[in-house]
Amino acid sequence: MSDLNPDAAASAPLRAKSAPTWLVVTIAALFGLFYAYAVWNALAFLVEQASGPLGLNGYGWFVLLFAVAFPLIAFGVAFTIGWRRRGWELAIVLLAGLCVVSVFWLNVVAYAAVYGASLLG
User: Fold this and answer.
1) Domain count of the chain?
2) Which of 8, 11, 87, 116 is the most buried (most CB within 10 A)?
3) Between vectors from CA 87 to CA 86 and to CA 92, what angle results, nearest 5°?
4) Neighbouring-strand partners of residue 56
5) Distance from C-alpha of 14 to C-alpha of 94, rounded to nearest angstrom
6) Residue 42 exposed, middle or buried by CB count within 10 Å (0-12, 13-18, 19+)
7) Is 24 within the bounds of a domain?
8) What count of Cα atoms within 13 Å lies in the side-chain half-sphere of residue 96?
9) How far apart are CA 53 and CA 29, in angstroms?
10) What is the pLDDT, as a whole number, of residue 4?
11) What's the CA gap between 79 and 73, in Å, rounded?
């Protein structure tokens, strides 16, 4: 005979319900526009620097290509963390990821402004 406790379900912690699919898609799409703007901005900066008279060296290509890829990586990580949570929690996680992307982009621009010669070929 098995030792089943009828109160086992009552003693289990309550799980928060996740957001409906349409809400997850809507929140992710709205924040995705901001992440896409960061990608577009980094790609425009990469093209502008690469098409200059000196071009880019290997280090410059690495830094500026990583600046293009970083918002995509950050969105993927933030979405993976927040997609099974409530809607407002997903929005907070995506906002935090967008803040990290913004700080990273400001660091890339500041580095290019101060040490831009090290990126050029």
Assistant:
1) 1
2) 87
3) 100
4) 120
5) 25
6) buried
7) no
8) 11
9) 38
10) 61
11) 10
- Establish if 30 belongs to a structural domain: no
Instruction: Report if residue 6 sits inside a domain.
Output: no
* pLDDT tens track for 59-97: 999 999 999 999 999 999 999 999 999 999 999 999 999
The residue with greater pLDDT, 109 or 118, is 109
| Containing structural domain, residue 108 | 40-119
Residue range 14-68, pLDDT digits in tens: 566 888 899 999 999 999 999 999 999 999 999 999 998 888 899 999 999 999 9
Is the residue at 13 inside a domain?
no
What confidence category does residue 109 fall into, taking pLDDT thresholds of 50, 70 and 90? very high
Long-range contacts of 21-24 (CB under 8 A, 24+ apart): 23/87, 24/83, 24/87, 24/90
Q: Give exposure, 58-92, as e/b (b: 16+ Cβ within 10 Å).
A: eebbebbeebbebbeebbeebbeebbebeeebbbe
In angstroms, the CA 17 to CA 11 distance is 18
Phi/psi for 56 (5° steps) reads -115, 145
